[in-house]
């Protein structure tokens, strides 16, 4: 019997750990799973253990030489110049024991999600341990050793001959995935992110449109720092609706970083929990409209692991399963259990307190700049569509 959605998870995913003080903290997975179980939204029958990606599968995107370097560094656990030239052993992506195995497990989780959806065993699949969108062919970057989304897309192309729409709403530009398919006309990448003027990785301009046969299948929407919910969602809804109508994918893969929130310590956006309720809602709707329901979702960034990530990712899973957001707030037992460990007071409700912050004096100016950016980006899309029509 086909399941509505499966949740890819095992404790092995917690092994992707750089250090006790590194901002990328997989304890957020534990907090999210516990929250969903406490509210009876996640049962053992929903959970599927991830497999480990093989070296052959990793090589769909990553250089075999790079994979060997990661394996060697995992054993030696020493920071040398040779490792740093491959992006590991750096401040962002330090070496840790069994790094290769832990990274391959996260990739394998996304491949497990792919097989469940593409083989018709589930309409949707969620791998919150995935979403490591900064990994490159031969280099780690931005906390990402291997790029699970890029591997999964290439895997879907080869095994299922799929035309893939990749949607990235992480506050950081989805650079690794974009560059992996920059010249591929059968993969469309959409990234809505804080402008690179202020934030890593500094890329993701609207002029990055693809190359060769892939020209016009890469879309970037760099929003201004301090962007709030309404402007973020206006860009997201307008862009996604127009692009998917043009591209007509077989499957949607969405990256759901939770770092566009006001509380996130590494970014400068002013989102609230409202965007994390609305982002998956539209992805879900469009998956059923265009892709026979085929929707694979992964995690990503998110560095306020106590107040933001568990609520945001729980809302994603609830949307996948058509579970209404409870009105009574977060489960009391969950709040009591984790408030003892949390260094900051937990938010007891699903939505954020209103107001969450002082009014932004430049709100109208920021919104107008985002609208101008959106209009310019979509003008390029329409211009290209018109050119193709008259060829």
Describe it.
The protein has helices spanning 27-38, 55-58, 64-76, 81-84, 99-118, 148-160, 175-180, 229-247, 273-290, 309-320, 332-339, 363-389; strands at residues 3-8, 47-48, 122-127, 164-168, 187-194, 218-223, 251-255, 295-298. β4, α7 (175-180) and β5 (187-194) form a beta-alpha-beta unit. The protein is globular. An 8-stranded parallel β-sheet has the order 2-1-3-8-7-4-5-6, sandwiched between helices. The mean pLDDT is 95. It is α/β, with parallel strands linked by helices and 391 residues long. This is Acetoin utilization protein AcuC. Pathway: Ketone degradation; acetoin degradation. Keywords: Acetoin catabolism. InterPro entries: AcuC, HDACs, His_deacetylse_dom, His_deacetylse_dom_sf, Ureohydrolase_dom_sf. Belongs to the histone deacetylase family.
* Rg (CA only): 20 Å
Largest sheet: 8 strands, parallel
Strand order of the largest sheet: 2-1-3-8-7-4-5-6
Question: What is the strand content?
Answer: 5-15%
- DSSP helix count? 12
Which range best describes the helical content: under 10%, 10-25%, 25-40%, 40-55%, 55-70% or over 70%? 25-40%
Taking all residues together, what is the mean pLDDT?
A: 95
Distance between the termini: 47 Å
Based on helices, strands and strand pairing, what is the structural class? Answer: alpha/beta
> How many β-strand stretches?
8
